[in-house]
Amino acid sequence: MVDPDKVYLMTKAAQFEDKEQKNALKTVSFRRKDYIFYHMLIVMVSATVGYAMLVGMVLFLVIMANDLLVLNVGEMFLILAGVLLGYAVLLIIYYMVSHKYYGEKHVKARQEVKKYQQVLKQLSELVETEEKQGA
Questions:
Q1: Is 9 part of a structural domain of the chain?
Q2: Around Cβ 116, how many Cβ atoms within 10 Å?
Q3: Which SS3 state, helix, strand or coil, does residue 68 take?
Q4: How many helices, marked H, and strands, marked E, lie in the chain?
């Protein structure tokens, strides 16, 4: 006879294995702090490359539009300060958003793995009780 509780637990375990197992187990294999740091590092490098490309394109367009662009030292310093301030603000924003996002993602993955482990434990207990009753 088929036990509906056992079928239910097996179905829940199979759903987790099909949909979420790869990402959740991969995420949980890192400590939360390391997982967040690793992904924030990737985000910061990507933001730096993107910002450098944007500044380069703007600089190229300004130079192309003004054939005889001559700036004194004070103006160059002001432009450099603006670029660095923009970069700092961008990194701070990316830092805060990515820290929150990847922290929540790790917590959610950990919760999913715990649920999965509970389902497996319940399933194991059902199998053990069936074996004891059958023996």
A1: no
A2: 19
A3: coil
A4: 4, 0
